[in-house]
Amino acid sequence: TQAPVTVTVTGAAGQIGYALLFRIASGQLIGPDTPIKLRLLEIPQAVKAAEGTAMELDDCAFPLLQSIDITDDARTAFDGTNVALLVGARPRTKGMERGDLLEANGGIFKPQGEAINAGAADDVRVLVVGNPANTNALIAQAHAPDVPAERFTAMTRLDHNRALSQLAQKLNVSITDIKKLTIWGNHSATQYPDLFHAEVGGKIAAEQVEQAWLSDEFIPTVAKRGAAIIEARGASSAASAANAAIDHVHTWVNGTPEGDWTSAAVVSDGSYGVPEGLISSFPVTARDGKFEIVQGLEIDEFSRERIDASVNELVEERDAVRKLGLI
Ligand code: NDP
User: Which of 248, 259, 269, 275 has its CA 20 to 30 A from that of 51?
Assistant: First the structure.
């Protein structure tokens, strides 16, 4: 067997955490031969609930699970960690201004970035799930100057998976028939799911659907899926968010298949006019444990407008956290 991988999950007692931890412990995050050491970070009042989840993890007798540590201290949680899944965040509550939301999350992601900087393993990979995910990732990254910036990412894989599923149902094809789909921009209602580079059966997906379906149904359905789930389920999506987090890290570590790519919010190198340093969703491949932005795609006017709108929102969020002194 291989060397164990230490995985830290924040907000471990939350509903995404509950859907995530059992899959990590069963070997689905990295692979079936890699032992796992779990570190659970929670706020003090949720530590007891995390201990309950840990009891259930024990009761699964997962062969790969070597240890579970629970703490309310970020330094302890991230010491030596290889994979950090930042799930816990301050949700937007009724009447809350965006500035308040960003500030509350700054209070969470700044110390977590500092703790990662201080103690994480040299190969640490960070995935931010807690919203506003892209900007929370930017805050954490800004406080971890010794960690290569590209190790900080945010999750748009759930949006990607939602788009795959909507398109597969529309064209009555299987998920595996779809390649090269992209989510661009912010993990928010402005995100842009792009079918102009996606391929179904080797042909461009946008050409196989009506333009009206693409702009009036597909894009809003993908962007507003989170709200639709809350409406139907009476609670926000959790298992699908956890699944996407597993997919994101598994792809990052194990790579994308030849002839395909996926979506992840990664640090921009200035590609496609996205300001350098923003953490924005791009088409990415993964090779040798690294994400790379797919280069050279032609962006038509329809896509340009939508990518720019979402990227502009990220610029505004960045400027707002800058003004608050959070980055
Ligand atoms: P969830 O586990 O349901 O969600 C956690 C975060 O994931 C939220 O910020 C949520 O954002 C975000 N998220 C991203 N994508 C999705 C998606 N597709 N569907 C749903 N959520 C998504 O929240 P809970 O309230 O159940 O649990 C949060 C836990 O985090 C609590 O146990 C709390 O104590 C803990 N916490 C821990 C901290 C720490 O470890 N330092 C700090 C803050 C909280 P959104 O709300 O916008 O949907």
Answer: 248
